[in-house]
Amino acid sequence: MKRRLLLTFAALTVAGVSFGASSLESAQTRLKAAVEEVLALAGRATDKPTLMKQIGPVLEKHISFDVMTRRAIGPGWREFDAAQQEQAIGLFTKLIIRSYGSRFKVGQMPEVKYQSAAEAAAGRVDVSTFTIYQGSRYSVVYRMEEAEGWHTTDVVIEGVSMVANYRSQFDPVYKKGGVSAVLAALEKSAARSE
């Protein structure tokens, strides 16, 4: 009986490890594909407006902007009605795409080196990378979650979470002026990123 119990435990442990390794591998593969797709566009772009127009659909395919928006807004998200949530997601998506795309200079390609992937929680994997761009090296961790495939839900650059950074900006705005103030702040930020 004891031996059978140990064998069962061993089998479950091995199954868990292989599932974990599979999750890590598939998340990292998905991230690499996304990065390669963006870099290929950046390499072919002849000007900034063309690049900005092309990377949007790629980022929308690989990033879960609805999850990022909800987390960036924080507890106040529950007070947004469905139309306001949709508006917030659209504005936040535009803000992130414009902010991300503005960092590229036509003709200059960043180099991304993949370090490790770790299962942070069930259905969540953190993929660590180093990005070398314009002579500087940045530690970048992509937080990915599995929901109908792996999608990025946060990016941590040099230890600073993008979602937490935006949340620290939106939380006081919400506390002071509610939903309409957050939407106004998002509109202003999205317009400024153009």
Layout of helices and strands, plus pairs?
Blueprint lengths: L1 H43 L3 H15 L2 H9 L8 H21 L8 E11 L2 E10 L2 E11 L3 E8 L2 E2 H31 L2
Antiparallel strand pairs: 1-2, 2-3, 3-4, 4-5
Summarize the structure.
This protein is an alpha+beta fold and 194 residues long. It has helices at 2-44, 48-62, 65-73, 82-102, 162-192, and strands at 111-121, 124-133, 136-146, 150-157, 160-161. It has a 5-stranded antiparallel beta sheet.
Note down, in words, how this protein is organized:
With 194 residues, the protein is α+β, with helices and mostly antiparallel strands. The protein has a single domain, classed as Tgt2/MlaC (Nuclear Transport Factor 2, Chain: A, Roll), CATH 3.10.450. Helix content is 61%, strand content 22%. The protein is built from five helices and five strands, in the order ααααβββββα. The chain has a five-stranded antiparallel beta sheet with strand order 1-2-3-4-5. Strand 1 and strand 2 form a beta hairpin. The protein is globular, with a radius of gyration of 20 Å. The N and C termini lie far apart (68 Å).
Observed structural traits:
194 residues; alpha+beta; Nuclear Transport Factor 2, Chain: A; 5-stranded antiparallel sheet; 22% strand; disordered N terminus
